[in-house]
Write a structure and sequence with these properties.
The complex is a heterodimer of chains A (303) and B (401). With 303 residues, chain A is an all-alpha fold. Chain A has 17 helices and no strands. Chain B: One of its GO terms (cellular component) is transcription factor TFIIK complex.
Chain lengths: 303, 401
């Protein structure tokens, strides 16, 4: 975290309303209908899951931080609000986003190493020429108007840990929920503190049993619990009068009421997360890989 | 304000050159043989609007003569096309030359922080645009009246305690603002403190800046030009705070008073020795934990210098007066935990006692001022002297984990 979120370029230039975001994407689609029908791609969230997995693979042998992966994911989202994905080589773009994000989050990696790793993973899509990555970096920075600082919800989570007396299990689960929110459009739609609070509520209200390791994502732990609907009712209670439910939740409700955080936004985020976990069931890595591969490859051959 | 010709201080939009984007597109089709032409036309249609935006920004300025050149940038004088008397400095980052390694951390850091920070005592970034040869151009506030180093060195200029108070006040406010926004500058020294045409001091060169690390994460200790580097960094501390900038501020303060650098070591070890001689030997008593720092050097027990007290500062810096000496002492505490923070420094009694700080318009200034950007041949963290070449900055990747 650097600088003040309220005065940040993230808040001023990269926060969309849902309608505006749909609009931006619709316009990209309108411009190139043919390619769109020619190369169907999976649901954006499924693509995001795929990209996230690729980023994690890429970062595996380097000492990267979760926060750099998160920043890279936000860069991808920002970039693809300006560019049609079907006009790019997603593997190059995600490698570049990763490379730039590492520099930005103060865990820089040498360009050769990054290209080497990327080539090892996707030999068909990444050339050994590091200048390609350099050029793509320039394009990425330009498309983002050199606005590179990303504010993440992780810091808010750690700050609220003591205040809300969260257990380490709850923090771990909330952390995983934050990891998962990068698979949705939420980082473009809501400020980081709203996301952090959503993650805390989900962790406290939907606390899965038995608690355990969440391995980065909360999907397996939460998907079924959330679908059972019990949690949703409890969440609805958040907006009603406080005073029901277990003491911990009551305390959270009281705190929220005083905090002036936009509760509606928090609920919207929860629903978005729930629908992510639903759509996740359809995820197939092979399918994503094939569609992207076909798109990138045949754009070389047919045109 | 110096040259602030824009209604809005928020840097406006910019967009990549068609070139870069095209190559990006071409990279997608790496083995393409014939299709490039079609692809190009599709792409350019796509890009008309964004290109137009970038062109609008670029067209706003006229690049004039070159002011200086550095390792990663060339600085030009520029002005608004609509108003030739409103100057700006255009810092062109040499992207092409750096392609093989991507953009340098210096360039990235500078853009990253200046995009977000806006304060009267921090150099303003008005715009960013890219030019057709794929260079990133930063349009910066033009600061024509040189820097504090020139004023200190120019023996023809006489200045007094009230002037020092004015300059230090502006420096302290700039540093406070950075820290308030969780940014460490890490290269505060007189020649990074530029002076605007109205006399305002501006913190410049964010090539070494970074945001506060998350708790327990390491940062590099290879920052800050040696003479302004605090003892904890010389001892290799990997976790530190705004206190490092406060030490540098103290050194600038001392230098303004003495008109020569106060502790000017020839090597890092010599720097520690000189700091010990000046302020006292760090020990477990006056700085708990110091002996555990990675590069801690045990002192010669026969030459332990006691921690210097108030009398020492008064004797060394009579022009500061007792209250000024007290402020300086608080900025030069060896133990970073005992050093004052930027806020504490700003709340010190010295600012409100006589003499009052000189008004900006009455501050002494150099006549034939050196132009901004002239010293760009140096990298940040280096001293203008062959002897100390490559002193501070070895930002190797290994050290930054």
């Amino acid at each position: 975290m650097a600088a003040n979120y309220w005065a940040s370029t993230q808040r001023r230039h990269w926060l969309f309303s849902r309608e505006a975001l749909t609009d931006v994407r619709e316009r990209l689609r309108e411009k190139d209908k043919v390619t769109h029908s020619q190369f169907p791609l999976p649901d954006q969230r499924l693509l995001n899951i795929y990209f996230n997995q690729q980023l994690i693979k890429l970062g595996k042998r380097m000492t990267t931080r979760q926060q750099a992966i998160a920043t890279a994911q936000v860069y991808l989202k920002r970039f693809y609000t300006k560019n049609e994905i079907r006009q790019t080589n997603p593997y190059l773009v995600l490698t570049t986003a990763f490379y730039l994000a590492c520099k930005m989050e103060e865990c820089p990696q040498h360009i050769r190493f990054v290209v080497g790793e990327a080539r090892g993973l996707w030999p068909d899509f990444i050339t050994p020429d590091v200048a390609k990555l350099g050029e793509c970096e320039f394009a990425l920075i330009s498309e983002m108007h050199s606005q590179l600082i990303v504010h993440h919800p992780y810091r808010t989570l750690s700050e609220l840990q003591t205040e809300l007396a969260l257990t380490s299990d709850e923090v771990a689960l909330a952390w995983s929920v934050i990891n998962d929110h990068y698979l949705t459009d939420l980082p473009l739609l809501h400020p980081p503190h709203v996301i952090a609070i959503m993650a805390i509520i989900v962790a406290v209200v939907f606390k899965p049993s038995p608690p355990g390791a969440y391995l980065g994502s909360a999907q397996t732990a939460l998907a079924s619990t959330m679908r059972e609907g019990q949690g949703m009712n409890m969440l609805a209670a958040l907006t009603d009068k406080p005073g029901s439910g277990p003491p911990k939740i009551q305390k959270l409700v009281a705190w929220l009421a005083e905090s002036e955080v936009d509760i509606k936004a928090v609920i919207e985020c929860t629903q978005e997360l729930l629908s992510l976990y639903e759509v996740w069931e359809q995820y197939s890595e092979k399918h994503c890989k094939e569609l992207i591969g076909r798109m990138v490859k045949s754009k070389n051959l047919d045109k | 304000m110096a040259v602030s010709p824009f209604a809005s201080r928020s840097p406006s939009l910019t967009v990549s050159s068609p070139n870069a984007a095209l190559r990006l597109r071409a990279a997608a089709a790496q083995n393409a043989s014939g299709p490039v032409a079609t692809a190009k036309s599709v792409y350019s249609a796509d890009r008309e609007l964004t290109e137009q935006l970038n062109d609008d920004v670029r067209q706003k300025y006229v690049k004039d003569k070159r002011l200086g050149e550095g390792t990663y940038a060339i600085v030009y004088l520029g002005y608004l096309r609509d108003n030739p008397s409103s100057y700006v400095a255009i810092k062109k980052i040499k992207v092409n030359a750096e392609y093989k390694d991507g953009l340098t951390m210096d360039a990235i850091r500078e853009v990253k922080y200046l995009q977000e920070l806006s304060h009267p005592n921090v150099i303003a970034l008005h715009d960013v645009f890219s030019s057709k040869d794929q260079n990133l151009n930063l349009v910066l506030e033009f600061l024509p009246r040189g820097d504090l180093e020139m004023l200190i060195k120019d023996t023809a200029i006489h200045y007094g305690a009230a002037d020092v108070k004015a300059w230090m006040g502006m420096l302290a406010r700039g540093v406070w603002f950075c820290h308030e926004n969780f940014v460490l500058h890490r290269d505060i020294k007189p020649n990074n403190l530029l002076i605007a045409s109205d006399g305002e001091v501006k913190l410049a060169d964010f090539g070494l800046a970074r945001s506060f690390a998350d708790p327990y994460l390491n940062m590099t200790h290879q920052v800050i030009t040696r003479w302004y580097r605090p003892p904890e960094l010389l001892y290799g501390a990997r976790q530190y705070s705004g206190a490092v900038d406060v030490w540098s501020m103290g050194m600038v303060f001392a230098e303004l008073l003495l008109r020569i650098p106060f502790v000017a070591g020839n090597t890092d070890v010599d720097q520690i020795t000189k700091i010990c001689e000046a302020f006292g030997t760090p020990t477990e008593e006056n700085w708990p934990g110091v002996t555990e720092l990675p590069n801690y050097i045990p002192p010669d027990n026969n030459h332990l210098i006691p921690l210097q007290g108030r009398e020492f500062f008064l004797r060394q810096f009579p022009t500061a007066g007792p209250v000024g000496a007290d402020l300086l002492m608080s900025m030069c505490a060896l133990d970073p935990r005992k050093r004052s923070t930027a806020v504490q420094a700003l709340r010190h009694a010295w600012w409100t006692i006589e003499p009052r700080p000189t008004k900006n318009e009455d501050l002494p200034q150099k006549s034939g001022a050196k132009k901004m950007g002239e010293d760009l041949g140096r990298r940040g963290g280096e001293i203008d002297d062959g002897m100390f070449k490559n002193a501070a900055r070895q930002l190797d990747f290994g050290a930054m984990k």
